Structures are given as structure tokens and as C-alpha cells.
Amino acid sequence: MLALAAPLRAAGPRDAGPEPGIEVLLHERAGELHGKRIGLVTNMTGVDRELRSDIDLLAARKDFRLVALYGPEHGVRGDVQAGGHVDSSRDAATGLPVYSLYGKTREPTAEMLDGVDVLLFDIQDVGARYYTYPYTLANVLRAAKKRGIPVWVLDRPNPLGGEKVEGPVLDPEFSSFVGMFPIPVRHGMTIGELATLFNDEFGIGAELAVVKMRGWHRGDAEPGGTMPWVPPSPNMPTRDTALVYPGTALIEGTNVSEGRGTTRPFETIGAPFVDARQLAARLNALGLPGVRFRPTWFTPSFSKHKDVPCGGVQLHVFDRDAFQPFRTGVALVKTLHDLYPRDFRFQSGLPGASPDFFDKLAGNAWLKQAIERGDPLDAIEARWQPALEAFRRQRRRHLLYP
Known about the structure:
7-stranded mixed β-sheet; 10 strands; globular
């Protein structure tokens, strides 16, 4: 613990690249927290470039006091699978109370915030609308607004580069915890930029500060530079997973496996009824930019089709700049629907659930209807462009990095 209290060393050649918000905070802005009681919303991704946990770094400080932890989906330590209930508890390393924001309540209660002067938020996002962490942030902002507590977001890179936007803007009628606000699937913003967008454009109005990164630029060839990749959830093991996720997460709204229970979730797609060679050939014939599909066979160890052999494809991205993940995901769903009409189906999630889970992911009802009608891929893509262009203009007001 005492070693963690030592000053962070300056970045050297081996750790050139973006300096995350947690390091900027401790290097330059810690004095603003002097004497404050701190609540920290974080998980396993809240680390510095030497992989030291925010929890340990902040708990070791003597100039302010860390008093409470708050955990999103998957928990503070990342030990809960997708959708699993997260219980409140105590942190084994520090003894601090850990309040769940993915259990009985998803917004911090007055009791959870009692005795907190400032809330810090530090969680790695993946750049896709479906991810739940930005909506945990929105709920934290709402709760903080009610109680007059400032929120500081410690910013981190967008692993997709933060330059491009893609996909339909969510229809507010389809708002859920996998899409709360009218933003596109690939939003091209950092978690700090999303915070300002949510706070200013969608009526939250909390006292918000973003601790910006140093050295991150939109469109970096290797987004994140040498910043270590800590899986932000159990099924997001690599940056490659994050790259395909804005498209292949649509498979979660179908009866096809999105690769959970394999070593390549969201890159490996298939089902028992799929002919792997046929599907790969049909997809490759589309000439989708930047990606090729390799026939593969796998048996998921959990989730859909557990212990059942499946045929399918693995996505291989050869040109990151040309690759369009959401267009690719729509093409994948459409091809599965067209090739296997007797076996493929869209999932509703829970019995009787409305809207269907696929529609929640898409953020609308029309995408599924277009696929079922057999609309061409170009016509489907054209339909989301006007709202996407309006979002680009709105987004521009909240970009913090060149």
C-alpha cells in the first residue's frame, strides 16, 4: 500500500501513448480533492498504464479519503457474467463498501451516497451504444444532480478510434439499458464526451467535470496506443472483439450463437443449423469492405447452444479503416435469415417481452422488418443516414479531442 502512494513516474518510451484520466487527476488535479470524501464508480478497467487499480491508488492517498465503491454490470472486479445480478458487498482488499448499480437498483440511492462529497467515474467503454456502462454513468449523473454532488469522469480512449459514426440513431420508444438515448450504434465518442452529451442534451444537468486524457487523438492507428487492454467484460477479451462488436452484437437478438462460450466471442458466429462453408461463401460474395469470413466449427461451453456442435464463421478484419462493423452485422443477420428461413429466428428475450430484444439492440422496429421483407442492404443503410447526419452535428459540440 505504501508503495502505491509514491508519485507516478513520468511516461517513458515504453509507455508513450495516451495518459488516462486517472493519471492526469493524480498528477495535476488531486489538490482540488483535498479533504474530500470520494465515491468511486469503477470496475477492473479502472487502472493506470502500469495496471495499478484506481481503488488501490485512491485508497492509499492521505490528502483525501476514498469512502465508497460502486459497481456496474459485471461488478467492481468483473466476476459476474452478462446480465447477472450484482450484489452489494465489501471490497476484500480495502474493506470499503461496494454498492451494486446492477442489482435491485441501477441508480445510486440517497443511502448509497451518504457521506460522499465527490463522485469519480472511471470505466473503459467500447464505443457501441449497446454497452451498459454509459447508462450507469447517466444514472450516476441523475442521482448526483438530485443531491448536489459533483461528478468527475476520468476519461479513457474509444477503442474504435472515436472518428467514425455508424448505424441507426435510437428511437426513444425503444429506450432500455442497452440503449437509453438517441445516439447511433457506433457513436465515435469517449466516455467523457458521452457524459457531456448526456448531461447537456438530454436534460440531466448535473455538476460535471471531465478529466481529459493527454496524448489521445481521434483516429489513432492503434486506438489506445500502448494503454493495456483490460477486458471491460468477460466476453470482451481483446480490442479485436471491440472492433466487431457494434455489428455482431445484433446476433444476441437472434437464436444464433454470438460466440459466448468460445475463445472468440462476437468474432465467432454460428448455430447447429448453419452450413459453415455455405455461410462463409455467401458473406464473402458480398464484398463487404475490410473483412473476410472463414468457415469454422465450434461447440459453446455456455450460453446459446451449450455443448452442441455449431457451424459458422469467424470474422477476420484486414483493413480497420475500411471496415464497417454495423453494416457487416446487418449483412450477417440478413444472410442468416435468407439462407435458413426455417431455422433462424429473432429472439424476444424474456417470454412476452416487448419490444423484441433485437429491436432494443437495433433501437427501432424497422430494421427487423426490412430484413424480413428482403430489402437490399444498401436501402437499409440509406434509411439510417438522415438521423445519423443530424447526430454528427449534435456530437460535434461535445468533442474534447482533436
